[in-house]
């Protein structure tokens, strides 16, 4: 009988061991060394890198994504192609080429949408190659600000409008490492077959506006659960303007570009063609003009303006024009009446075709000043005959200028004489407009950039050499910069002689343009490139060209901790390139402050001691003209009928949030847990009965003895 008891106990132990064996087996291949609880947590809960879609608000409601409540979302992962009839909410794994159809279905099929717990988006060069186009923006972006009536015109042929809708579930774009982590956990499904487990994603993407129930900009600003979209634009004059003297002010030739873009995912917004190619072309032109002798003797004043917040209601241009009306310190030295003409540089990264760089000049209206700008562009083209550059007038059948900052100028003053230079005629050639796919490369080489860092002569070649297929062409940007630089010189000097030696001496540094593209459009080297680090100490390596939110009280002399990396770099770069040094001497500014009012301190971040130079370079806060900051809080101003753009201003804000995280891990089914519980109870009961039986048998045996 004693042997029978031992056998019974052995069976009980075996049952318990078998109940937990699958979990042990699933971890056996992974465990190398667990020395603490955090080690175990990292093993069980894999953090997934990526880029979130966040909640944005306006006066009428919400767009974007968020957890539906105040708690984490945990849902089993399933690939979209495997979805049939979902019974419970799932995390859907969607590829980039499936995004448009998926989110369109979510918006039209409420039953399907109710079964979406969260979304993981898998993107990359392989999917990008499959797509003929993908733009989550509208057919006519920001049509409400158009200066003409035909707002049904289709500028953006790849439009889907999916970024302008409200999704009541979290959406997360996976990084390369994130894709690997998700695929690794899913690849073990076959090995875990029959182990009663599920692979789940856990989304911690709770928005403060959801917690507080503030579902529009007015409500969330009152409760302090959001902040206005915006940032800091930068303008600079060449040569510097003497603010103290208003006599003999020259007419201003204003050159404009934008620094911000948008996409479905907050921090994956490069905007390579739209608008960063135009920004780089402007900086290339400034660099070229800064080396021209006698620039201070020009008949007209050159002013360069780089705007932010343009994607969200033309915040930068509208605020700049408003500051001009106020004659504020942010625009000291400028006035509305002094601006003679405006030249905007739009998307210029896709101008190369058949060995010729072709750009289209879109004009605001017919006027002698506009014709003067068009003539200057043609003269600049002719002076660059060997460069295969062609400037064409946009199709007269177009309803007007394309979506651009000039729309704000035209709405403010319909008599504005201006031209915007683009790489398209009747509609965008950028098929990834306002998409996370509008980056530097469609397809890149797998070689590591870091392996060449010790070889300086590779510094400029590697990024483009690694691009097997580029979204934008650096030679197109160089060509645009060359045309713009010479056009500005012609306009400012009023000299139309193509044989002019000064005009022929203006050359854009192609290596500088290529380096700048990799600084602003790639994570390697990104903002850690030498060019940027020579001016500032960047807070991030990977550039983010999303406008962001404006922090603290707006000011023309803001606390630099509230100013984005790109804005700070632009301020320092433009101040340097447009500066003059009195008496060819330099003075040191150890605390970022210069003793003379016409001087600014540059490179104070990158060096222990900055340098004082004479320059007219200023920050201009970019935020809605419907907003006012007072006593540490934002309020919305009443509508003003005299401000036509303010009447249609959505007043965009972004919800506050803490930390946005996604984890993936494996869980056991509740049915399996219940089965283990029943088995455990059964084993315990049998063991108890066995013990009682054994005790009875042993007692009887002892009595007989």
From TrEMBL:
Q: Where in the cell is it found?
A: Membrane
Biological process (GO) annotations?
Answer: Notch signaling pathway; protein processing
Note the Gene3D superfamilies from the entry.
Zn peptidases
**Annotated TM spans:** 675-694
Instruction: Give the main localization category.
Output: membrane
| Membrane topology annotation | Single-pass type I membrane protein
Q: Which residues form the signal peptide?
A: 1-28
Nicastrin small lobe domain location is 52-209
Q: Name one GO cellular component term.
A: plasma membrane
Highest taxon of the lineage: Eukaryota
Q: Which UniProt keywords apply?
A: Glycoprotein, Membrane, Notch signaling pathway, Signal, Transmembrane, Transmembrane helix
The UniProt entry's sequence similarity note says: Belongs to the nicastrin family.
PANTHER family for this protein: NICASTRIN (PTHR21092)
Name of the molecule in the record:
Nicastrin
**Lineage, broadest ranks:** Eukaryota, Viridiplantae, Streptophyta, Embryophyta, Tracheophyta
């Amino acid at each position: 009988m004693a042997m029978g008891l031992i056998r019974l106990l052995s069976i009980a132990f075996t049952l318990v061991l078998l109940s937990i064996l699958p979990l042990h087996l699933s971890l056996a291949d992974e465990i190398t060394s667990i020395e603490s609880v955090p080690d175990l947590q990292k093993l069980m809960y894999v953090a997934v890198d990526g880029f979130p879609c966040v909640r944005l608000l306006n006066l009428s409601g919400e767009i974007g994504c968020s957890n539906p409540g105040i708690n984490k979302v945990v849902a089993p992962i399933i690939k979209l192609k495997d979805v049939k009839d979902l019974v419970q909410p799932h995390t859907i794994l969607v590829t980039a080429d499936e995004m448009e159809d998926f989110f369109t279905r979510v918006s039209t099929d409420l039953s399907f949408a109710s079964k979406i717990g969260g979304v993981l988006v898998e993107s990359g060069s392989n999917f990008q190659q499959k797509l003929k186009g993908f733009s989550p923006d509208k057919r006519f972006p920001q049509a409400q600000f158009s200066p003409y009536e035909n707002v049904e015109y289709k500028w953006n042929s790849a439009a889907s409008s999916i970024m302008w809708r409200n999704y009541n579930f979290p959406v997360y774009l996976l990084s390369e490492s994130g894709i690997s982590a998700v695929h690794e956990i899913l690849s073990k499904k076959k090995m875990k077959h029959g182990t009663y487990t599920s692979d789940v994603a856990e989304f911690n993407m709770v928005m403060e506006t959801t917690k507080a129930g503030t579902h529009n900009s007015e409500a969330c600003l009152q409760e302090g659960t959001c902040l206005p979209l915006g940032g800091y634009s930068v303008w600079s004059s060449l040569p510097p303007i003497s603010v103290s003297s208003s006599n003999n002010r020259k007419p201003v030739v204003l050159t404009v570009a934008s620094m911000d873009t948008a996409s479905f995912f907050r921090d994956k917004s490069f905007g390579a063609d739209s608008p960063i190619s135009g920004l780089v072309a402007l900086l290339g032109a400034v660099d070229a003009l800064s080396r021209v002798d006698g620039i201070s003797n020009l008949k007209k004043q050159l002013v360069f303006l780089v705007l932010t917040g343009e994607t969200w209601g033309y915040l930068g241009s509208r605020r700049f024009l408003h500051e001009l009306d106020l004659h504020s310190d942010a625009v000291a030295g400028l006035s509305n009446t002094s601006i003679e003409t405006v030249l905007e540089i739009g998307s210029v990264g896709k101008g190369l075709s058949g060995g010729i760089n072709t750009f289209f000049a879109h004009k605001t209206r017919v006027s002698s000043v506009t014709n003067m700008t068009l003539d200057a562009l043609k003269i600049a083209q002719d002076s660059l005959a060997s460069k295969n550059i062609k400037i064409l007038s946009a199709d007269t059948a177009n309803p007007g200028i394309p979506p651009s900052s000039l729309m704000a100028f035209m709405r403010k003053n319909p008599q504005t004489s201006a031209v915007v230079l683009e790489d398209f005629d009747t509609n965008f050639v950028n098929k990834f407009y306002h998409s996370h796919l509008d980056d530097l490369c469609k397809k890149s080489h797998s070689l590591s950039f870091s392996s060449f860092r010790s070889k300086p002569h590779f510094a400029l070649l590697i990024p483009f050499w690694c691009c097997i297929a580029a979204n934008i062409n650096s030679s197109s940007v160089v060509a645009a910069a060359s045309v713009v630089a010479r056009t500005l010189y012609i306009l400012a000097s009023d000299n139309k002689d193509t044989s002019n030696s000064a005009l022929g001496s203006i050359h854009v540094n192609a290596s500088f343009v290529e380096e700048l593209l990799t600084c602003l459009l790639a994570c390697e080297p990104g903002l850690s490139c030498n060019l940027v680090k020579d001016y500032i100490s960047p807070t991030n390596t990977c550039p983010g060209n999303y406008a962001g939110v404006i922090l603290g009280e707006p000011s023309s002399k803001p606390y630099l901790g509230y100013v984005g990396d790109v804005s700070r770099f632009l301020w320092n770069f433009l101040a340097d390139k447009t500066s003059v040094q009195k008496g060819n001497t330099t003075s040191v500014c150890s605390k970022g402050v210069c003793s003379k009012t016409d001087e600014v301190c540059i490179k104070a971040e990158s060096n222990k001691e900055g340098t004082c130079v004479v320059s007219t370079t200023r920050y201009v806060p970019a935020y809605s003209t419907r907003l006012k900051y007072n006593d540490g809080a934002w309020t919305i101003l009443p509508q003003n009928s005299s401000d036509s753009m303010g009447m249609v201003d959505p007043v965009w804000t972004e919800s506050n949030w803490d930390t946005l995280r996604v984890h993936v891990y494996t869980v056991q089914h509740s049915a399996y847990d219940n089965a283990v519980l029943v088995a455990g109870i059964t084993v315990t009961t049998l063991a108890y009965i066995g013990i009682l039986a054994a005790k009875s048998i042993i007692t009887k045996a002892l009595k007989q003895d």
